Amino acid sequence: MDRHSSAPHGVRDLVVVGGGIIGLAVAWRALEAGLSVTVLDPDPGDGSTHAAAGMLAPATEAEFTEDAALHLHLAGAARWLPFAADLEAAAGRGVGLRESGTLTLGYDETDVALLRRVLALHGRHGVASEELTIAEARRREPLLGQRVRGAAWVPGDHAVDPRAVHAALWRVVAAHSRGAVVPRAAVRLEQQDGRVVGAVDDTGDRHRAGSTVVAAGWASAPLLAEVPGVAVPVRPVKGLTLRLQADPELAPRHVVRGLVQGRPVYVVGREPATEGPWAGHCELVIGATSEENPDDRRAPAGGVFALLRDARALLPAIDEAALVEATPRARPSTPDNLPLVGATHVPGLHLATGHYRNGILLAPLTAEVVVAGLTRSWFAVDVATTDPPAVLAALRATDPRRFPPRAPDPRTPDGAPR
Ligand code: GLY
Any coiled-coil ranges, and where (predicted)? Predict the structure, then answer.
């Protein structure tokens, strides 16, 4: 569709609050749909996008009892190949998509028992995966640690470089004649006659728009606390990733993840860099810790130690790599581990947040759903989509309206706590 902006002068079709991978993906797809778009973020891409390793891992991130999430994540993964091709063509730069598959490992017998239960879960949902002998695993990944007891191959779980994706999205959004990225923080949403009509930034400037998408990760919750009629139960869950630079001969060929005495760890490798101080080296991202803590931007020494200890139990050659970065950031989590995607009960207000561990994986699908809602084509998408019923049910499970807004406190006349 190429619909031209119908907004009055000075008023945009869309304001997106948050310039991480989700916000910029929404902005880009909205520009492609013909809307005029302003993105507000004081430091675009410096939230969880900056820490993310970039696994596109519906199978190896699958959780027992979370069937809707699994179907959502499979649909998200299916969007990535065309999204990456489109974005690379539009931006004229790569996004580091590696269709390498994932080797998943169990360090001790208890870890292997859980790995087999996960393989059975894949089998029940028709997701491709197979147990390997250690010799077969070593053929795929010769640098495997000597003490690893079990292995499986998951051919459909890949990885992308989130920082490269973000840089490409920034380029296409900022360069677009109808796009703008404003490096200011939204401090509140503008409301008028029960509608959200834009956002006010930290200099007091008003950014008026027909629609507003809040894609500010865990910070979406405090921003929307004052908007009646909407509930955004998004909380920060802190994680830490490490970045290392390795000689290509010492870098894994696939995404490697595993359980080490019950602790999950993953290692994502990139292609060798062609420029910069680490030209000829491969970036490795090791992740990730997970704690119910705020985004304090502190890298705990114990977390750095634990990640290195567990990663080198799977891939001892990590000892030879250079540790160049420890990146603590908080993921935006929700009570049911599903994101909030689409229109709210409040006219003009849409959400794209709460993606927890799968913000990179779900960015293309989220952008598609949000823009369908913005351009009023949602019902056409709903009926005409080629997605199977389980995916449509999973998409409906991300409806932000599933959380009822908090009722005013009846103990005081104005609802304020005493
Ligand atoms: N997606 C992996 C993580 O959140 O650590």
Answer: none
